[in-house]
Design a protein that fits this description.
Length: 450
């Protein structure tokens, strides 16, 4: 029924005793007794972690389970930060985000629920178990998304109110990872020490989470902070299966124009990589070889933004370094991500890199590509794209005074073809050449219209 203090030392219990013979006269007698806690001192903080997916099939939807715990004598759990492995992501657009007021009050609706939480509290071998719900919220604590962990504090006849623990969710799109960081868990509730021993999170809303398509060995990691300020990191191995069996069938389409709108406008080019939906290996890299008649313009190369300027603030780059726009459309978000394409010059590198900062749904994604320009012919490579399903990856290089490509003289003489090599997260690859649709060529007009 009772538990010793969590630290070693001497502790004193006191009592005030009043006799029946003189209940109102004089001060009551005060007595005290001191006892010592001197065994198993310095239990430290070494929490355990068990975690995994409920479905191990690559590219399939799944649930995620996290179990953290500590032994009696260890410091209490204060905060929890959990990072999922690359590619284990959430279809955020499938959930209605709970508002800030409702999230703080613990009154989110089922439309925002993404799972459940179970907490075991109390010392000894038979702690008390509380069960609650996990909700996805809008921005919280500087993070683009948040969570609300809601537990009813009911134990038998005692109702201690609703326990709400908030947290933020950060998204590292370059790495393809999600990180959840909670606020402090309560240690005492209306005078009752909670002594939380285990926390179980079940993110099991149907269709919410999706597995990666790279079967490399990964890990789910937790960093926990104790009430005494100690930090501990634990990890659980994570690996999906069946990556090699996933299809990889992206398509590449490209269009250009036969004539510039005015002298000096250069050439325009629009390239789209389109992926099929459903269980499919996610795109990892794209290498594009442009036709010989679409050459890089010397002025565009010379107008590249210095790397130091770009890294400090891309918005401070000169307009001449902005050569187009890029779009990434993923079914995980409710809006596409868009942003400018920059040519960036790095000292010691012969040719500028092709870099873009894409924004959408409160998130930001930086994509970096390399350019190889040989006798004016530009080849571009984009490596290490995140392990996430993409409907569309589009590069639009328009005509204009800052066009990256040269004038399109002769583009109607014969079909233009773009060579490509695309690789999937599962190691599959596809290569080929696709015909560029040229608008404005008389003999191609009907084909382009179709």
């Amino acid at each position: 029924m009772l538990a010793n203090p969590t630290s070693c030392g001497s502790f004193t219990a006191t009592a005030e005793l009043t006799p029946y013979s003189a209940p109102e006269s004089g001060a009551p007698a005060t007595r005290s007794s001191t006892f010592a806690v001197n065994q198993d001192c310095g239990g430290g903080f070494a929490p355990s972690l068990q975690a995994g997916a409920t479905n191990a099939a690559a590219g399939q939807t799944t649930g995620v389970v996290l179990h953290v715990g500590r032994s009696d004598g260890q410091e209490d759990i204060h905060r929890l930060t959990a990072t999922l492995p690359p590619g284990l992501l959430a279809y955020i657009n499938s959930v209605a985000l709970c508002g800030a007021g409702e999230a703080a009050a613990g009154t989110c609706t089922a439309a925002s629920e993404v799972g459940t939480i179970a907490v075991a509290a109390g010392a000894g071998s038979d702690p008390y178990h509380l069960n609650g719900h996990v909700y996805l919220t809008g921005p919280y604590g500087g993070y683009p998304y948040g969570i609300s962990l809601v537990l009813p504090g009911v134990a038998g006849p005692f109702d201690l109110g609703t326990i709400v623990v908030r947290g933020g969710i950060s998204v590292n799109l370059e790495a393809g990872t999600l990180t959840m960081a909670t606020d402090a868990f309560p240690t005492i509730l209306q005078g009752i020490p909670l002594r939380v021993k285990t926390i179980d999170l079940y993110l099991d809303r149907p269709g919410l989470m999706v597995n990666p398509t790279d079967c490399a060995q990964r890990a789910i990691t937790d960093t926990l902070e104790s009430t005494g300020g100690a930090h501990a990191t634990a990890s659980a191995p994570f690996r999906v299966v069946g990556c090699a069996a996933l299809p990889f069938t992206p398509k590449l389409k490209a269009t250009t124009h036969a004539q510039a709108s005015r002298r000096g406008d250069g050439a325009g080019l629009d390239v789209k990589v389109i992926s099929a939906m459903g269980p499919q290996a996610n795109l990892k890299s794209v290498a594009i070889a442009l036709p010989k008649v679409l050459k890089a313009r010397l002025g565009a190369v010379q107008g590249a933004c210095p790397a130091a300027t770009y890294e400090a603030n891309p918005g401070a780059c000169p307009m001449a370094s902005v050569v187009g726009t890029a779009t990434v459309d993923t079914p995980m978000l409710n809006v596409p991500m868009r942003g400018p394409i920059y040519l960036v010059y790095h000292r010691g590198v012969r040719y500028p890199s092709v870099e873009m900062v894409l924004q959408g749904a409160g998130l930001e994604l930086e994509v970096i590509g390399s350019a190889n320009i040989d006798k004016g012919i530009a080849d571009t490579n984009f490596d290490l794209l995140p392990d996430a399903p993409l409907r569309l990856f589009e590069l639009n290089l328009p005509r204009g005074s800052h066009s990256m490509l040269g004038a399109t003289k002769g583009v109607c003489a014969k079909p233009l073809r773009i060579g490509y090599v695309m690789s999937g997260q599962n190691g599959a690859s596809t290569r080929g050449r696709t015909t560029v649709a040229v608008a404005g060529c008389r003999k191609h007009a009907k084909a382009v219209a179709r």
